[in-house]
Write a structure and sequence with these properties.
The complex is a heterodimer of chains A (about 850) and B (about 230).
Chain A: H1 2-18, H2 20-49, E1 60-63, E2 72-73, H3 74-77, H4 86-94, E3 99-106, E4 110-116, E5 126-133, H5 137-141, E6 147-148, E7 163-166, H6 168-175, E8 185-188, E9 191-198, E10 215-218, H7 222-225, E11 236-237, E12 239-245, H8 251-266, H9 275-283, E13 288-290, H10 297-334, H11 336-344, H12 349-386, H13 401-427, H14 444-479, E14 490-494, H15 507-519, E15 524-530, E16 540-546, E17 558-565, H16 569-573, E18 577-580, E19 594-598, H17 599-605, E20 616-619, E21 628-634, E22 650-654, H18 664-668, E23 684-689, H19 696-707, E24 715-718, H20 719-724, H21 728-762, H22 764-772, H23 777-813, H24 825-851, H25 855-860
Parallel strand pairs in A: 5-10, 7-9, 17-22, 19-21
Antiparallel strand pairs in A: 1-12, 1-13, 2-11, 3-12, 4-5, 4-8, 6-9, 7-10, 8-9, 14-23, 14-24, 15-23, 16-17, 16-20, 18-21, 19-22, 20-21
Chain B: E1 2-13, E2 16-28, E3 33-37, H1 44-51, E4 59-64, E5 67-68, H2 74-84, E6 85-88, H3 100-109, H4 115-128, H5 144-156, E7 162-166, H6 174-189, E8 193-197, H7 201-204, E9 209-214, E10 217-221, H8 222-230
Helix pairs in contact in B: 3-4, 3-5, 5-6
The chains are: A alpha+beta (about 850), B alpha/beta (about 230).
Chain lengths: ~850, ~230
Amino acid sequence: MIDAVLQDIRYALRWLRKSPGFTLVAVLTLALGIGANTAIFTLVHAVLLKNLPVVDPNSLVRLGDNEYCCNLNLSSMGPDYTIFSYPGYKYLRDHTPEFDQLAAMQAGMADLSVRRAATNANATPRSAFGEFVSGNYFQTFGIQPYAGRVLSPADDTDAAAPVAVISYQTWQHDFAGDPSIIGSTFLMNTHPVTIIGVTPPAFYGDRMSTDPPGFFLPISQQPTLGSSPERDEASLGWLFLIGRVKPGTSLPTLQAKLSGLQQQALSTLPDMQTAYGKTQLAKAHIVLTPGGLGIANMQHQAANSLYLLMALAGLVLLIACANIANLLLVRGMGRRAETSIRLALGAFRARIIRQMLTESIVLACLGGLAGIVVAYGATSLLLALMFTDAPGLPIHAAPSLPVLGFAFAVSLLTGLLFGVAPAWLTSREEPADAMRVSSRTTKSSSSLLQRSLVVLQAALSIVLLIGAGLLGKSLNNLEHRDFGLDASNRVIVNLNPLKAGYKPEQLQGLYQQIEDKFHAMPGVQNIGLSLYTPLQGTSWSFWVFAQGEPEPAAGHFIGSSFNRANPDYFRSVGQRIIRGRAFTDADTATAPAVAIVNQAFVKRLFKPGENPIGRRIGAGVAANSSDYEIVGVVDNTKYVDAHEENDPPMFFLPLLQPGHFGPKHLDSAPAKPAAIDASLYAQALVLQMNALTPDLELNVRKTLAEIDPNLTVDHYATFASQISGNFTQERMISRLTLTFGLLALVLASVGLYGITSYGILRRTSEIGIRMALGAERTSVVSMVLRGSMLQCALGILIGIPIALLCAHFVTALSTLLFGVQFWDLTVLSLATLSLSFAAVIAGIIPARRAASIQPMDALRTE
Amino acid sequence: MIELKHLERSYKTGHIESWVLRRINLNIRQGEFVTIMGPSGAGKSSLLNVLAMLDDQWRGSFHFDGVAVHELNRKQRADLARRRIGMVFQSYHLLDDLTVAENIDLPLSYKDIPKADRTALVADALDRFNIVGKKDLFPSQLSGGQQQLVGIARAVVHSPTLLLADEPTGNLHSEQAREVMELFEKLNQQGVTIVQVTHSEVNAAYGSRTIELRDGWLTSDSAAIASEVQQ
């Protein structure tokens, strides 16, 4: 049997070598189809399927089943808990012996300004991400250090010396793998921290991320290095938990126990003492989920897009299969005599099928090999399109073993798919045909199959073209919607004075200095300072209350986004003041507390037609409702989500006026003397320029360094590119769908061309007779074109309902289509026209060739 | 060895039925060298297809060495043919992609014969037909006579008891044709029953018996004539 298979493979290779043209076209077609699928699978595997590179990932469980992030009030986020406070974590950890280890990790990332103390004292600090983790973090994941040591529980105590573990990537990239780094002291946010070890090269933390943490710090250092003192606040959720369960542990039992413990941990919170709080507390629970993938934020964000791309790539492969099947059918016609001889010599039909399938599979495997090369290039391109500016992303284009396995499996499947029909049809030859000297005409069954395959290709192509059209239009709608902003000639500079060691009382001087220095820069029109900027991917939000309005029932509080702004901020981002005034220099820390709100805020909190100017509002709890006086109303803008249809309420406070976002007793509690309002630290500088010059970034960095060398630039971008960055995923999907659509169009056209040409070859004598009998060239052209257009039209008729059905599902299940109906007539018409035009081109060439047949020559072929 | 009784074959084209073999009664004994002759369209190749068991759309009875072929299903007929019959074609029908040795091996590869035995049988055939030196050549590298030699070697490599040849010298010049016919004669002397279809009287002369077909009817059989003469 093995001999026979090897013989079949040998014959197949010989057969392919003999027809280099066919082999090249088939291998290239397959390479594109298999390559596209393998490239998408590389991402699917890396993002959605691959476990963390840790010891026994299958015994890890995560507490929680959603992706809330990053600092949340636990009273308001239940009842399904995913995020935990530090006291809550310790309570759960200490009461669950079922866990070998239960580790806590920061839900967000710590913004760090890092400088190695021992080197040049004047060196500029660099910006980096850190992550606060529990002392048993590495122990939980079974991670051994690449060099030095990893954190231990002893490092995670208030009395312990401040230490950190550097990631291998940061060690290599920023410090050139310098071994002397271990034991050296770094200044992190101006505080000394000793580096004790380097993580192993493959370890990228507990989650797939475009910016994996460069430093792992014990939670004990959070109050010193963090932006706000959340560590010991029982009501503030900021930690994710992953544990390694002991063998034999019943997860349902553990889950029930954890839910009970969570209720007990939350029961001490003041908000849980109310009647509403008590009902919420009773519902509080924790769902255990597999922890092998770690914190799966990126998986959740990318899953829909990746599955859609996988489906689209699958369609392209199907079209490629139909094309190759057609080519094989044509070649099968040429091999009818050979098949008859084999049958006449005693071959079983199964054996003929096996041999032909072997040929198809060998061809598909060659296509698969070439596809791996295509996949490597396509994956690199996809990574660049999907994750722009993410050098630390732990996904590599080089094919891994599972990816190679996938490519092989797809190749096998593809070979079977495109080979089975030609093999079956060829095996139906009659052995008696071998006795005849000349071959006869093609049988109608294979001809019908060939035409059906072209119809299938046309149908699949129209599905892809409509998909590309809808997604393209959706992207266009998104990019050109009115965000209520003006992004022209504006740049955003992200910085963080907290990292540079500024105390709240120093901020006024710093902000003044920034405004003065940048105003002195040539070309600057307006300088905005704020906590964050529109469509930056950041958000602060609180419950809001208006004085004099009835307090909403528990569970129906109104949430509002919050930001801080200097007097020029609104002008700098192009947000219009439509009532009242902007902030002024007079709105200082000691001046009466004022706020500016947007129209959506007014609509949600006040009665229609009511003048909000002069009304008082507050945030956090109803008792704060008289804190700020509304002095202005601004236009609605898209701030957090560029896709959202409804504008969310938003309120702004002056940069330095104190904010109250919780019960007042917390602000002044003696237990928290070091509590600072992190919102006082402006983290975004907006520059409205006369024009954007090439040296602007350099000048900005220079100016900031002149103000304070410790003020590191975390990120620099034009406002337009920041907004555009919100559509990276949509743009990538749209471009890929368009590429797939065009590829499908080319493949379908080639298929139609091939079948029409072959048909004409078979009908040479018939056409000759027609012409001898007086048929004109135009009638021959139209006869041939009619045939090819009929197949195209059938494909369109079949494809459009399928496309509409798919688009309807995509619209219903995701937000991928924005402002486009799934039946958009323009898109449907354009797609139909494109395919029809391609069909005319594919048909006209063989049709003209048919019309040039000389009757005498044609009749000679009979 | 072969006994055909009232064998008929027709093709239907629309409502019209065209008869290619009409009530054929024929007995062929072991070791005979039979030539089938007749004009084009007489049914010669159709009869050969029936004898080769490549065609199963005929009516009547067909016994092969006592086995009632008309009672066998398609698979059983193919199996019987695979074991007992060899075929030589006018156009040689060698597979272009296979070497001489691989072409000869082809009928063996469709049987349950171990690789080593197959290799030995192919080597014997190459030796027997004096084409050892050409075993790695492809058909396109051979002359017509050499190709037909390979075709015959392929037909007899599995030692069939019946060798069927359809115009075996139709594409050869006279010298090559003579060599092929002498080879058939030799095989016949070694005990192989041969049935050939030919237009050539010269080739027919190598056989021991000639039958003639016209319009599907068996119109003449030299064996019957001889028997009548004896009587």
